[in-house]
Amino acid sequence: MAYSNFTLESVRSVFKLETVQTIDLFSEIEPVTPNSHFTEELRKKVPLAVAIGTEKARSELIMTGVLFELREHFDRRISLFSGIDFSVDAESGLVGVCDFLISLSPEQFFVEAPVIALVEAKNADVKLGLGQCVAEMLAAQRFNAEKGNSIPCVYGTTTSGTDWLFLKLKKQKLYIDMTIYTIAQCDKILGILSSMVDQKA
C-alpha cells in the first residue's frame, strides 16, 4: 500500500483519526501580499495552465510558483521539495512520492525535520486528494517524532492550482477546512501557508 491508495474513509479507519469538518478554519489568518512580479507571472500562467488542463501543467505553472513565493517570503529559511520519495513506514503503508513537501529546515539537499506541510496536486477535484494528503501528513507526524521534533501540528493542502483546500493534523484529530480558496485569493493562500510555517493556525 502507498499514499495514493488511501481514501479519506480508509485513512480515518486505519489510523483511527477523529475528523472535525469546519468552515473558515483559517479565516482569521492575515493575507500575505505577493510581490508584483509574481502576481504578473500568475496572471499569465493561470489561464495557460487551465487551458492545457493537465495536473502537470497546473503543478508547474501555478503550484510551484506559489510555493516558491512562500519560500522567498521567508528569505529561504524553509526548504521546498517536489516529487520526492518520502517513505516513512512501509508496514503501515506510509510510503510513496509526495508532490510537494515543506520543511522548517533551510537544508535543501535532503529532508530534515521538522516537516510541516504536504501539498497534494490534483487536476480538477481537490477532494480526490484528501486521503492521500492525510496519509502523507501522518507520515510527516511520524517522521518528526522519530527525529525528536516537537512541532504540535502538521498541515496539508490538496490543490488543483486554481482551488486550494487546507487540512490540519494535531495528534489524532484531523481538521478539514471546508472553505475552498481560489488562486484569485493568492494573498490569502500565501497567508495560510505562512501561518503553517509560523505555527499560528
Layout of secondary structure:
Blueprint: H1 8-15, E1 18-22, H2 36-52, H3 55-73, E2 79-85, E3 97-103, E4 115-121, H4 130-146, E5 154-159, E6 163-170, E7 173-182, H5 186-198
Report on this structure.
The chain is α/β, with parallel strands linked by helices. The chain has a single domain, classed as tt1808, chain A (Alpha-Beta Complex). It has helices spanning 8-15, 36-52, 55-73, 130-146, 186-198, and strands at residues 18-22, 79-85, 97-103, 115-121, 154-159, 163-170, 173-182. The protein has a seven-stranded mixed β-sheet, sandwiched between helices. Helix 4 (130-146) links the parallel strand 4 (115-121) and strand 5 (154-159).
Strand content: 15-25%
What is the domain tally? 1
What is the level-2 CATH architecture name?
A: Alpha-Beta Complex
Over the alpha carbons, how many angstroms does the gyration radius reach? Answer: 16 Å
Strand order of the largest sheet: 1-7-6-5-4-3-2
- Derived structural class: alpha/beta
The number of helical runs is 5
Shape by Cα distribution: globular
Average pLDDT level: 93
Q: What name does the CATH topology carry?
A: tt1808, chain A
H/E series, N to C? HEHHEEEHEEEH
Q: Characterize the quaternary organization of these chains.
A: single chain
Counted beta strands: 7
CATH class: Alpha Beta
Q: Roughly how many Å apart are the termini? A: 31 Å
| Model regions low in confidence, pLDDT < 50 over at least 5 residues | none
